[in-house]
Amino acid sequence: MGTNNVSMMGFGEIAEQLRRSTVAVHAGGHGGGSGVIWSSDGTVVTNAHVVRGSHLGVELWDGRQYDATVTKRDSRRDLASVRIQATDLPAANVADSSDIRAGELAIAIGNPLGFVGALSTGVIHAIGPVYGLGIQSWVQADLRLAPGNSGGPLANARGEVIGINTMVARRLALAIPSNIVTTFISAGASDGWLGVTVYPVQIPQTQRNEYRFGLVLLEVECGGPAASSSLLPGDILLGTERKSFRSANDLHAALLGNGPRLLRLEFLRGNYTRVRRVTVQLGGQLAPGSTIAA
User: Fold this and answer.
1) Range list of β-strands (E), 56-171
2) Residue 160: what pLDDT?
C-alpha cells in the first residue's frame, strides 16, 4: 500500500492495528505514559522518564493489565525496555528510519490526558538534531502531542513505527528514530544509570566573555544513584575528576560499564565559583562510603 493512496478504510485499519501495538504504562505516583509492544513475547519499549516509579504496570489495548519490570534503560537517549509476562502479543511493525523524508504523513498513538488510544496525524517536518538538545537525531513531526503520549509510537502511513514519541519542542513533536531504538534493544545490557534529566548550558566564567560547558540537572529521580548521592535539581555537572564534559555524550561515556563501581563527579551548586565533588555509586551497592555532595 503506497503512502499517497491509503484509502480511508485502509487508514482506519492501519490506525486500529497500531492501537493494538500501543500500551499504557503506569508508574504509580509518578504518572505514566505510553509504550510500544516491540516483540510478541513481552518486550515493551517506552521512554526512560516514563518508568520512574518502583511499581510499574502495563495495560494492553483490550484492558488486560500486567506488572512490568525494567530490563534496560538509557537516560541519555531517554529509552527504556520493560518486560511483561505475556505471549502472542501484537508486536508493532518497525520501519527503517533512515528512509524517512520530510513531508510524509505521520501518525501518533498514545494515551494523552487519560484518553486511551488517542490518534494524532500530521507530517514529517525534518530529521536530525534540534538546537539546544545536543547532537542526537530526532524525527520532527508537525502534529499534536500531550502528556501521556511519551513513549508511544510515531508511525508512517503504513502503520510502521518510525520513532518513539518523547517531547515537544518549538511546537514540533520529537521522536527517537526507530533505528536508534533497534540498536538500543539489541545492545548488551548496561547498568550505567544516573537517574537524572539534563540540559546543556554555557556557564559564565570570571573572565569576561569566557564560558564553560555544563549539564544542568532538570530532574533527579527519587531513589536513583544521583538522588542517593545528594545531587539536586539545579546542580550543574561539569565533568569527572579526570575529564571535563563537552557534551551530553561525555556523561553517557562516563556512565558506561557494568557491575558495582564508583564515579567521582564535579559540579556547581548555588554559584559559579566553588566546584563541588560527589562520589556516585553505579551498578548496585558497594561497601559503605562517602556519597555526600561536598
Assistant:
1) 56-59, 65-74, 79-83, 105-110, 118-128, 138-142, 153-155, 161-169
2) 96
At residue 290, the 3 state secondary structure works out as coil
Distance (Å, whole) CA 213 – CA 239: 9
pLDDT at 23: 96
Catalytic residue among 120, 150, 178, 229: 150
CA distance 88 to 103: 35
Q: Mean pLDDT check: name the lowest of 42-46, 50-54, 183-187, 211-215.
A: 50-54
C-alpha cell at 55: 511499581
* Residue 30 pLDDT class (50, 70, 90 cuts): low
Q: Is the predicted pLDDT of residue 144 greater than 60, yes or no?
A: yes
**Fold of the CATH domain 196-282:** Pdz3 Domain (2.30.42)
Q: Which fold has domain 1-187?
A: Thrombin, subunit H (2.40.10)
Domain boundaries, the chain: 1-187, 196-282
**161 phi, psi to nearest 5 deg:** -70, 125
* Active-site residue, from 49, 74, 125, 229: 49
pLDDT at residue 292, as a whole number: 38
**CA–CA separation, 219 vs 200, rounded Å?**
13
- The pLDDT value recorded for residue 270 is 87
Start-to-end Cα distance in the chain: 61
Instruction: Note the pLDDT of residue 76.
Output: 73
Which one is catalytic: 26, 78, 120, 125? 78
User: Is there a catalytic annotation at residue 49?
Assistant: yes
